[in-house]
Amino acid sequence: MASAVCALLAAVSAASAAPAAAEPGRTEAGYPSSSPVTSVISTVVTRDIPLPPTALPHPPACDQLSYLRWRSASGPSESAAADRILVAQPGIFEGAGAFDSVARNTVALAARFGIHLEFWALDRRSNCLEDHTGTRAALAAGDLDTATNYYFRGAEVEGRRFAGYADGAATDWLRDQGLAQTLRDQYDLLRLELPDQRLRQRKLLCGGHSLGGFVTGYFAGWDFDGNPATTDDAGYHQCGGWFALDTVIRVGLGLRGIDLPAIPPALAGGVENLSLQLDTALPVLRLPAVINPETTNLLALAGLAARLAPDGVNDLVSRLPDNPNITLTLRTLLSQNAAAFLTGSPDARTLTAGNEAVLGALLDDNSQPLGFLQASTGFVTGGPIGPKDFPLPDTVARGPLGFGGFGDAPKVSPTRHAPDTVYRWLDWDEVTPGTSPYTNPGSEVTSIAQLARTLCEPPLDFTEWYFPSRIAFDLQQTTAPSITAHHLHPEGVNALPMLTLQGSGGIPLPDSGSPLDTRIELAGYNHLDLVTADPDSRRDGSPEPVSARLVEFATR
Known about the structure:
It is a single chain. By secondary structure, the protein is of the alpha/beta class. Helices cover 31% and strands 15% of the residues. It has 18 helices and 17 strands. It has a nine-stranded mixed beta sheet with strand order 1-2-3-5-4-8-9-16-17, with helices on both faces. The longest helix has 17 residues, at 265-281. The protein is globular and about 70 Å long.
């Protein structure tokens, strides 16, 4: 990495710039953070970028786009003067706040070499429907009840009461927020922030995490004016390279070793019409339990409880509402076996656990069954544990029949539900070779304390309440008429250097197929670790590999 940094230093003059004057239609504001990485300035940027006149009725706030911006405190204040800018698309059910740790780590590491990087994390327009009043007020007051009373019990906060989770007519407009609008939003935002197309192509590196990589794959080949003869507007002429964080930059979904076939063009129009009907009926991707707006907000509240009182016991669990969604979600995620899931005995609410242990149970790779929700955050302690065989036996989930969708870590569950047994959490750096046969120090890379912080502190949150179904429908329809009308440059994704970083326990992914791709597997990393890993996760003192590889890539 040092040689690449030296080469860039010889070629780039990083002159500091004076703060820009206020621009109509644009706001930028700093926000408080308890991150230990204090050399990075974080702000939230919001721009007025209205939806087209044909859009269905929507709140005024949804005519804005926002992103989180991280930059070095020792670097220039204007983005145009930065050496490089990494622009990231979030994954499914993921907001801009998910990138807080990797952004801070990358910007801070680059600054050590005299390189001034910026990191921008984009937020989807649908997040304008979220209400973070309770979380923000609870952080300011240092009081969890402020949030739980607001979301669960109708309490008033700052003159406002929680109106509930949007549904029905309030979400109808999201049926038009598919791939085309998502790509247009990124393009419009980048053009406004950096009006010079040649500067964008030289400075920007575009990519994403999880589903964000596939979105970027389409962005690369998208033609925004619909005229293939004019390429200044093409996606691959907005960026100088691509980066993938436990994802792949390509068009069309697929699994490792399995490429899902494209729909024949003769059938594509009919399939697209069917998907539009489904999208009209279900504009927000949600399930009766586990994945829906209430449960994604629940993850933020679990982070809030662990952030405010890491040593507290059952603070969130004791305040949870008793409704079918929460009950079924807890059973699905925390049941040790099928019998416990079916009978509800023992009840997960009767387990005595610290706030960090509750968060670990929800997201750690040794507990969370779904691979796309896993991070390697440490291990449970304080009481007996046993193998967890639900929703699949561990040998099946981690075998070929699991298709890599359940992570690579063995699953365990606390086995004693009693007031005198309090389960606690060992953070990633407290795991030693003798901690448990189910884990080892090399496979723990994310701090539970910092994961708690990123779940609740950034003003654009980690978890996404309202993911538009249309995006999921569009991504596989490579031959649909609405896609082929603008995806006119399939060569664009292979025209630029690419960096693909994948976790050894991450989601199964195909190759990008690009001859310019550098693909690296990171041992011990699960899906979320690519954006949440601790800067000191390599215990030998070497730099955290995601941020180190991004810095190296940015300085080529």
